[in-house]
Task: inverse folding
């Protein structure tokens, strides 16, 4: 693997998303799933993307690999630069070489993302053969090695087994082995631990971080679980209704969220250290009132305004621009601040 | 009766000592069906050696004789040996059954996959298939036979064509389900090519129901061949086939029942064996019931 050598203190980003717009067109109109999202990913970095269901996290991720069928989707604008090349402009053939080899993906549900009729070893070996100049035998050996690396016991025997013979956690580890088999530069993990129980979640996240160190892979961690973000990411991007509303280093985001949406997300985490005193009894969780707005017809103004406790007339009239807020932070809000 | 651990251990032990017996106990239909079908196939294939008489040899002096040492199944209206004709007839039936099953399944998979993956082709293909299904199979086959010259090959084609739409519908519906599965997208996400996606990731997932469907097509083709021959629109009369024999024997059924008894019996056994095999395969290949001890 070659890393850019020109400026070691500020390495060139391995992936740059620039004002990406992905729209879906259907009978009801245009659905702006991703509406002008920008971010960059440095080599070896872990970037978290959080937001509730339907905010465009997955669509952003899938667009990077150009896996969203078109039609109905249209990339309406922007660029996805992988080491300087715009992936939206390369041929389908080059794109296939990149998928799984240079940029790879882990899906949410390990129960359904492995093919039930092929053995685990075959599935990993197939990806290796597809991208590397390796014979069947060598590819098989490599897949056994990968299974060993993700802590599958008896990898040689297990490689010959089918997905239904694996437990959920083992399947997700097999998926990680599959995704990392060709040592990609970027790994997109779309809610990799959501479908697993909590102890297994921790194992899977630890494993991903360990392998990240080993291979120098940059990770985009897509999740709605702020606990996962706190544990794994260095930098976080908060998305709301197809837009980036806040970006910050993880510690700052947790200690002083600027956007009221981020504030609401953090406030809705159950806490054991507060309100746990016996005399207080059960306390209701704080929630963000309302629903994500329809992405069909965007009215002027901030899309979070209808749910926002700080909303003013200004918020309802004009959408706030995304502006730097010092210390590598960015926020799109007219009234940013730590307290609501 | 409640199954105790001791029972399970006992069964496990007996099945590991005599694996064949355990298999037969778990899949009685499969074993019975394949044994019967194997017997039919051996009799048909070994016809030249088992049956001494030429099936076309006429012996007018000994016509319509009952079963005897010289003619095990008796003789027909032209004095031909029913035993030898029945065995030779099995060759036609099995040949037609297997060819139709392979051809109809092969064509159906090809057309069904195209329909399942390409929306534009789908509309066109499925309307044509609907049209074909609206015509009764036997009529379509008879119509096809009348415009072609009667031979075993044309019989196979005439039976295959009406069977294709059913396979197409099955394959299309399976492909529509499977192509939406996350593992297909996952395969795409590692850079798998389209044709490889179809061959390696989609096709193996539909093989099981296809095999089962193919056995039922095979059984129905055997019956179909007999229908067509009975109606005089099937296998040319100089070739002995069960349908031909029953058609010819119909005129003399009150004098010599054995002329239609034996081909009818063989026909019934063959169809039964293929259906048993199909049921057994379905049980064996369905993972929900296949894991039982």
Result:
């Amino acid at each position: 693997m070659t890393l850019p050598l020109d400026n070691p203190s500020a390495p060139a980003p391995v992936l740059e998303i620039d004002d990406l717009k992905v729209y879906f067109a259907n009978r009801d109109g245009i659905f702006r799933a991703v509406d002008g999202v920008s971010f960059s990913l440095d080599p070896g970095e872990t970037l978290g993307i959080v937001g509730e269901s339907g905010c465009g996290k997955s669509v952003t991720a899938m667009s990077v690999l150009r896996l969203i069928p078109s039609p109905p989707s249209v990339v309406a604008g922007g660029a996805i630069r992988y080491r300087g090349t715009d992936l939206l402009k390369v041929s389908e053939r080059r794109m296939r070489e990149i998928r799984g080899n240079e940029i790879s993906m882990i899906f949410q549900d390990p129960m359904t993302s492995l093919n039930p009729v092929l053995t685990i070893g075959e599935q990993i070996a197939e990806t290796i053969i597809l991208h590397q100049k390796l014979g069947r035998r060598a590819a098989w050996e490599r897949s056994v090695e990968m299974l060993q690396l993700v802590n599958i016991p008896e990898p040689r025997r297990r490689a010959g087994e089918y997905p239904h013979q694996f437990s959920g956690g083992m399947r997700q580890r097999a998926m990680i082995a599959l995704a990392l088999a060709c040592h990609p530069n970027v790994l997109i993990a779309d809610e990799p631990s959501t479908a697993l129980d909590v102890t297994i979640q921790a194992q899977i996240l630890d494993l991903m971080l360990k392998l990240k160190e080993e291979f120098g892979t940059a990770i985009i961690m897509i999740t709605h679980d702020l606990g996962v973000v706190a544990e794994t990411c260095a930098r976080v991007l908060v998305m709301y209704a197809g837009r980036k509303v806040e970006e910050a280093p993880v510690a700052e985001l947790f200690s002083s969220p600027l956007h009221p949406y981020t504030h609401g997300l953090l406030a809705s985490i159950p806490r054991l250290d507060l309100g746990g005193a016996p005399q207080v009894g059960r306390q209701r969780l704080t929630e963000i009132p309302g629903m994500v707005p329809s992405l069909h017809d965007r009215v002027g103004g901030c899309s979070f305004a209808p749910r926002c406790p700080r909303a003013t007339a200004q918020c309802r009239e004009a959408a706030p621009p995304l502006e730097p807020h010092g210390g590598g932070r960015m926020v799109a809000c007219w009234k940013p601040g730590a307290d609501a | 009766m409640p199954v105790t651990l001791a029972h399970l251990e006992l069964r496990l032990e007996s099945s590991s000592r005599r694996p064949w017996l355990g298999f037969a106990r778990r899949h009685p239909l499969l074993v019975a069906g394949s044994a019967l079908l194997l017997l039919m196939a051996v009799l048909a294939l070994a016809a030249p050696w088992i049956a001494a008489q030429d099936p076309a040899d006429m012996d007018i002096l000994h016509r319509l004789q009952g079963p005897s040492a010289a003619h095990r199944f008796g003789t027909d209206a032209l004095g031909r040996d029913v035993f030898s004709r029945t065995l030779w007839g099995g060759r036609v039936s099995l040949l037609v059954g297997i060819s139709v099953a392979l051809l109809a399944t092969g064509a159906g998979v090809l057309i069904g996959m195209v329909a399942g993956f390409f929306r534009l082709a789908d509309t066109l293909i499925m309307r044509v298939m609907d049209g074909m299904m609206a015509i009764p199979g036997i009529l379509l086959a008879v119509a096809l036979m009348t415009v072609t010259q009667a031979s075993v090959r044309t019989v196979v084609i005439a039976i295959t064509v009406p069977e294709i739409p059913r396979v197409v519908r099955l394959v299309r519906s399976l492909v529509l389900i499977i192509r939406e599965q996350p593992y297909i997208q996952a395969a795409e996400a590692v850079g798998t090519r389209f044709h490889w996606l179809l061959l390696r990731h989609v096709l193996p997932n539909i093989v099981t129901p296809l095999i089962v469907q193919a056995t039922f097509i095979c059984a129905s083709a055997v019956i179909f061949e007999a229908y067509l021959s009975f109606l005089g629109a099937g296998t040319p009369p100089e070739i002995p086939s069960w349908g031909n024999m029953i058609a010819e024997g119909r005129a003399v059924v009150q004098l010599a029942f054995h002329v239609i008894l034996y081909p009818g019996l063989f026909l019934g056994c063959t169809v039964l064996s293929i259906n048993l095999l199909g049921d057994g395969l379905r049980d064996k290949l369905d993972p929900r019931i296949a894991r039982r001890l």
Remarks:
- The interface with chain A takes residues 181-193, 200-201, 204-205, 207, 287 of chain B (CB under 8 Å).
- Residues 20-290 of chain B form a domain with the MetI-like fold fold (CATH 1.10.3720.10).
